[in-house]
Amino acid sequence: MTTETDLLIVGAGPVGLAVAAEAAARGIAHLVVGKPMGFWTDHMPGGMLLRSGTDWHLDPGGEATIERYRDERGLTEDQINPLSLPFYLGYAEWFRARKGIAPVDAWVERLDAAAWSGGGFVATLVDGDTIAARRVVLALGMGPFAHVPPELAALVPPGRGAHTHDRVDFAPLRGERVLILGGRQSAFEWAALIREAGADHVHLSHRHASPAFAEADWSWVTPIVDRMVDDPGWYRRLPPVERQAVGRRLWAEGRLKVEPWLEDRIRRDGITVWPDTRLVACDTLPDGALAATIGTGTTLTVDRVIFATGYAVDLGRIGLLAKGNLTAGVATQDGYPVLDVRFRTTVPGLFLTSMAAGGSFGPFFGFTVSARASARVIGRALAAPSEAVGGRDRLWSG
Ligand SMILES: Cc1cc2nc3c(=O)[nH]c(=O)nc-3n(C[C@H](O)[C@H](O)[C@H](O)COP(=O)(O)OP(=O)(O)OC[C@H]3O[C@@H](n4cnc5c(N)ncnc54)[C@H](O)[C@@H]3O)c2cc1C
């Protein structure tokens, strides 16, 4: 079966939902494909707390905010902070209903340029159904980019290690000894949750000093990201030294701090933090346990290893592009797509946002704060007369 639409949005996470809301507000016929909030339901642990607060809502129109959702439930800021994953999922569900967004819960297997002369795209779903669209927005998030450094992966015996992306059900770890490699928020939060789920012992090893338990200050991020709506080229115009300064500031907030509400949950029995260490060997013992050596003279006996080693953008890992005929047309730089100031790739009519847009728009694209601004810039581009034929005019600078 083939469905036709003007605009296909692939990905029903925060960014895809924001783009859909913006498209609807502009009267652009569209179809969203993807499991609603699938990354959050399937790749984050149910007991997780968010680092971001109520101000990072999803509505480009500023109406369906997290604060409104909170108020409608008669809740106060103190009752909801820090936001829990279930609360945020409830908000996203409410947002979808309020905006009338009904994603097709399916996986896009491949995306191709249409064979017919009018241009456009054909998306093929896992079941073989196809969607013909004149324009496509890819809002695929960070899931495709889960990263384990190959040298670490090579040390851990097959089947005994998993990335945090793939290990969110902690019940099977009850009674086990777990080694987590990584030293940022996810590593610490997974450690707390795994121990609370009944693991016998959790070790946390990282190559650097441990981050501080301190509240991150994101207040400066929202205004500069919102500024992109009126001036989407500001980040790329920054001199390299200023760009690095922005990156360092975000790094200092996000990576040199872990949330203070984790402190008591980490400084407890059954969790040991090993700063300035690195895994150098991991061998299977006769009884099946693992002997994990994390530096001179320190070998831990564990049952399982978890890689809290983050995400690294590499467009080559996006399956729907790799399987289709568009790869050669999508220019990349250092693994990121080359995007103009309207989020357009080098393939006319193909837009790309979410984490992979970070190369052109800044590291904020690893966070939901980017959802509204990118939706508004993309919405404006989609509504522009030049985009009516797939978009040929280019605005690469600012
Ligand atoms: C542990 C963890 C905690 C985080 N905490 C926060 C936080 O507190 N605050 C914050 O702002 N950010 C947080 N983030 C970052 C946050 O996850 C991202 O900023 C956010 O998800 C980006 O939204 P998105 O819509 O771009 O991506 P996603 O939420 O990942 O949505 C993209 C969706 O596209 C789907 N998709 C991909 N390929 C296809 C395909 N071929 N066909 C169909 N669907 C497809 C994916 O399955 C996914 O569901 C956290 C990330 C992690 C890993």
What does this structure look like?
This is FAD/NAD(P)-binding domain-containing protein. With 398 residues, this protein is of the alpha/beta class. Helices cover 28% and strands 19% of the residues. It has 14 helices and 18 strands. A hairpin with a 4-residue loop joins β4 (121-125) and β5. The longest helix has 15 residues, at 85-99. Residues 388-398 have low confidence and may be disordered. The protein binds flavin-adenine dinucleotide. The site of flavin-adenine dinucleotide (FAD) has 31 residues, from α1 and α2.
Helix content: 25-40%
What number is the mean pLDDT? 95
> Segments where pLDDT lies below 50 for 5+ residues?
388-398
How much strand content do the residues show?
15-25%
Coarse structural class: alpha/beta
CATH class of the largest domain: Alpha Beta
